[in-house]
């Protein structure tokens, strides 16, 4: 049983279908990335999880507690960081609140700014304060909607270090992001387009699927002989300066290809594997 299960979710705004027959199972203990361009339905799906929009379908939550970091800040601008956190501890009835507040302030590197009004924080500091408030009750499942939007690269790296530490402690994380380098950190990714799921799997699986496999490029002494040998063995081959062979997965095929060429009298000088980047995969799949 997943910690979060969505079955055939459909969300309508008048005649517009924002999410169409979308299903998802979040496994306990994983980091799952929900990817897609603007308008793909990611945030609407998350709002449905929290009952903020009407929907058709089923949503089951099997977590003791959930933390949510939405795109729009829930923080009170005229309160300090510390006062906001104290308010959230009171909502959750947290014992030892001051100890928990200090712990999280240090975790998100805001301890020295705890007395600063939220309205006077930089964008990155506000994001860190939001993360601290979402984590205040030590949730089993943490749902993060574009948590690093507008955050500079060093701070994005710090955020993901926090997420990975939390995951190592057993927390399950569902995160939406536009950043493909961040999506590489996920155990599994789900790609949405126009309210529907178009791909699901590990980052490596999705990259292979988008490219139709992996490409092995080989530099040889006799390209035409190599082409004939590989073609006769039913490989899909293209010849330019190198010999390029498409495979479902390169690692098990490379030794076979090299042995085949050597047995046929072709000298293999260099071999490399070409994989799609996640950004290339994203663009291929989103653009259809």
From TrEMBL:
Domain of life: Archaea
Domain ABC transporter: 4-219
Keywords: ATP-binding, Nucleotide-binding
Keyword Nucleotide-binding included in the entry's annotation: yes
InterPro entries the UniProt entry points to: AAA+_ATPase, ABC_transporter-like_ATP-bd, ABC_transporter-like_CS, P-loop_NTPase
Entry's Gene Ontology molecular function annotations: ATP binding; ATP hydrolysis activity
Protein name listed in UniProt: ABC-type multidrug transport system, ATPase component
């Amino acid at each position: 049983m997943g910690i979060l299960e969505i079955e055939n979710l459909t969300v309508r705004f008048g005649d517009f279908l924002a999410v169409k027959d979308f299903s998802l199972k979040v496994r306990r203990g994983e980091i799952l990335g929900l990817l897609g361009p603007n308008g793909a339905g990611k945030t609407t799906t998350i709002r449905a999880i929290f009952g903020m929009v009407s929907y058709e379908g089923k949503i089951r939550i099997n977590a003791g507690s959930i933390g949510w970091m939405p795109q729009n800040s829930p923080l009170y601008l005229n309160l300090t960081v510390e006062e906001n956190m104290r308010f959230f501890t009171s909502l959750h009835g947290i014992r030892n609140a001051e100890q928990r507040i200090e712990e999280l302030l240090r975790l998100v590197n805001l301890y020295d700014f705890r007395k600063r009004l939220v309205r006077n924080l930089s964008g990155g500091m506000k994001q860190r304060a939001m993360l601290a408030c979402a984590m205040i009750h030590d949730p089993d499942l943490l749902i993060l909607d574009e948590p690093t939007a507008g955050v500079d690269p060093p701070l994005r790296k710090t955020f993901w270090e926090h997420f990975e530490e939390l995951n190592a402690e057993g927390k399950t994380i569902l995160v939406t992001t536009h950043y493909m380098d961040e999506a590489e950190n996920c155990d599994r990714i789900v790609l949405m387009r126009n309210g529907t799921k178009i791909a699901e799997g590990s980052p490596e699986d999705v990259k292979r699927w988008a490219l139709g496999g992996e490409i092995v490029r080989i530099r040889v002494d006799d390209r035409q002989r190599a082409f004939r040998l590989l073609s006769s063995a039913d490989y899909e081959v293209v010849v330019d300066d190198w010999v390029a062979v498409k495979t479902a997965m390169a690692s098990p095929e490379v030794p076979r290809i090299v042995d085949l060429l050597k047995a046929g009298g072709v000298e293999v000088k260099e071999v490399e594997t070409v994989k799609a980047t996640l950004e290339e995969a994203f663009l291929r799949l989103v653009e259809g």
